[in-house]
Amino acid sequence: MNGKKVRLYDSIDSLPIERFHVYNRMLLLDAGIGSDITDFDAHIEKVVRYVRKGDNENAAKEMENMRQNVYMILEGQNVRHMTLACLVESIDGKRCDDLSPEGLKAVLEQIGGTPLKDMTASLDEVKKKIDDELQLYFPSLFSDTKTREYYDQLKRLTVTELERIAEGDSEERRAKAEQLRESLILFTSPRVFTGTDGVEVQHDKEYETMCLMITKETGRDAKRMTVLEYYNAYEYLSRKAKETQKRQNKGR
To answer: In this predicted model, what pLDDT tens digit does every residue of 89-108 receive, in sequence order?
Structure first.
């Protein structure tokens, strides 16, 4: 990337959990707020549709997220690229261990000359590999049901549009296509990213709580674990808690 040799973490048995936590926070921000003018346009589309439905609460949330999106665009903060920066292990042999916003920006400055399509392709490739491994090792924790539901609706919309082309348009087909399109656009409800109850704050608090529990029960520093070790410990503690609960229920 940008004439430099860049090594990326691409497996859960080597990816540190602390880095994975920051990576997931960036994914949350990118999904809910976005990074560029395309995301700004998507926010407007959602606001219009929520207003038409009379859903003022979600329209207001979407407006707030759009405001943050505009701020990020003006400040040149591309969260999608920051997500990629989280996975950079080293550049030209020099390790990149600073996961602070400044550290991630420093990484981006070094690889910033890379074409955007290449950076996006690299992120998508590595993200898919990590997601596939998580679903393989921990299917109960990383179920892909929501994604399958989304693509099922997308397939239905595609079939409807093809029918309009092949068999002729009609008011019924137009209405069906618009209904499916709106369902896809509003597939996920907007979440709040500001304040003490915001997604970012809750994401960090839940992670810290889980790290405390794992460290207490296993005697190992959870924050020094890999993703594989961390979720193995999580599953072990979950099974242990269920078994304890069963014994208590039988003893009553």
So the answer is: 999 999 999 999 999 999 99
State the virtual CA torsion across 136, 140, 141, 147 in degrees, nearest 10.
80
**Is 8 within the bounds of a domain?**
no
Residue 252 pLDDT grade (very low, low, confident, very high; cuts 50, 70, 90): low
Alpha helices in the chain (DSSP H): 17-32, 37-52, 56-75, 79-86, 101-111, 116-137, 145-167, 171-185, 199-218, 227-250
Tens of pLDDT, residue by residue over 170-186, are 888 888 888 888 888 88
Q: What is the largest CA-CA distance in the chain?
A: 68
**pTM (global) more than 0.70:** yes
Q: Which amino acid is at 158?
A: T
Is 207 within the bounds of a domain? no
Read off the amino acid at residue 147: T
Q: Give the list of residues 6+ apart from residue 5 with CB closer than 8 angstroms, or none.
A: 91, 92, 93
């109850």: which residue's tokens? 197
Tell me if 171 is assigned to some domain.
yes
User: Whole-angstrom distance between the N-terminal and C-terminal Cα of the chain?
Assistant: 63
